[in-house]
């Protein structure tokens, strides 16, 4: 099942994706979606809806260097345990929205990734228990000011600009996250191609590890790392992150006014 979050007139709704339409559901909280999904009789065409991020995370926990080939292209050793950093909730944008390339940076890169969406409060769980905390999976673009990342000791500035966390277009609730093909295209040209089976740490291991450090709340997102092939965006680029079994996240890059 694929569940999206949308603006419909003055209302915010969750709905089940049905081709080019959305069937509205009664539940309006992420935690409620873990317990039941109740379709209504209301069906709305996509053209009448505005995409919102699938959830409103209190935090995005991102994982660096979680694909061997990406670590190699960055010239860094493989991590012995997950390398974590945070992206603020203010960096989140939805499908079809614009990524703003800040004047402070001379190079802003795309990083297509699988997102894990947390469905219930999660603290100190095992990898096996982590499965019961996950609502589903989505597409994510860990946009990065690469020159600032290389300049700074920490990742915070490079990863945290407004619009640097495109997330969507919806959540797939019933897929196995292992063995999914993931691609990134810029202006239709293939730039990244990988598979989630190549992760160093699986989504379940990541949820477990992170939950030993911080409490994960319904709607929070874990961005699980990017395959090789990262590269720069420029003004008016169209960037698409597509993951097998989920869908395609589309965003447009624009220079800061």
Keywords:
20 strands, 257 residues, mainly beta, twelve-stranded mixed sheet, globular, Fumarylacetoacetate hydrolase, domain 2, SH3 type barrels, five-stranded mixed sheet
What is the residue-mean pLDDT, rounded to a whole number?
Answer: 96
**Named CATH topology of the largest domain:** Fumarylacetoacetate hydrolase, domain 2
Question: What is the second-level CATH architecture of the largest domain?
Answer: Alpha-Beta Complex
Domains, number: 2
CATH-level-4 superfamily name of the largest domain = Fumarylacetoacetase-like, C-terminal domain
Q: What is the CATH level 1 assignment of the largest domain?
A: Alpha Beta
CA-atom Rg in angstroms? 17 Å
Shape: globular
Oligomer: single chain
* Biggest beta sheet attributes: 12 strands, mixed
**Counted beta strands:** 20
What are the secondary-structure elements, in order, as H or E? EEEHEEEHEEEEEHEEHHEEEHEEEE
The end-to-end span amounts to: 39 Å
Computed structural class: mainly beta
User: Number of helix segments?
Assistant: 6
Strand content: 35-45%
**Considering DSSP H and I runs of 4 or more, what fraction of the residues is helical?**
10-25%
Low-confidence stretches: none
């Amino acid at each position: 099942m694929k569940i999206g979050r949308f603006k419909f007139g003055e209302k915010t709704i969750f709905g089940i994706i049905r081709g080019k339409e959305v069937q509205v559901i009664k539940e309006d909280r992420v935690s409620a979606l873990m317990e039941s999904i109740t379709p209504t009789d209301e069906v709305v065409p996509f053209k009448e809806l505005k995409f919102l991020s699938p959830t409103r995370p209190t935090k995005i926990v991102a994982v660096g260097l979680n694909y061997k080939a990406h670590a190699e292209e960055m010239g860094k050793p493989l991590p012995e345990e997950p390398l974590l950093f945070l992206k603020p909730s203010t960096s989140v944008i939805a499908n079809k929205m614009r990524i703003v390339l800040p004047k402070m940076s001379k190079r802003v890169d795309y990083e297509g990734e699988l997102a894990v969406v947390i469905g219930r409060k999660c603290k100190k769980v095992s990898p096996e228990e982590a499965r019961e905390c996950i609502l589903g999976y989505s597409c994510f673009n860990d946009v990065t000011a690469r020159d600032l990342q290389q300049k700074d000791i920490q990742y915070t500035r490079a990863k945290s600009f407004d619009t640097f966390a495109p997330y969507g277009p919806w959540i797939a609730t019933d897929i196995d996250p292992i063995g999914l093909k993931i691609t990134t295209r810029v202006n239709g040209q293939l730039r990244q191609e990988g598979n989630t089976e190549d992760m160093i740490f699986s989504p379940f291991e990541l949820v477990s590890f992170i939950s030993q450090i911080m409490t994960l709340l319904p709607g929070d997102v874990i961005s699980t790392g990017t395959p090789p092939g990262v590269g720069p965006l420029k003004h008016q680029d169209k960037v698409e992150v597509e993951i097998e079994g989920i869908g395609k996240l589309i965003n447009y890059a624009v220079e800061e006014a």
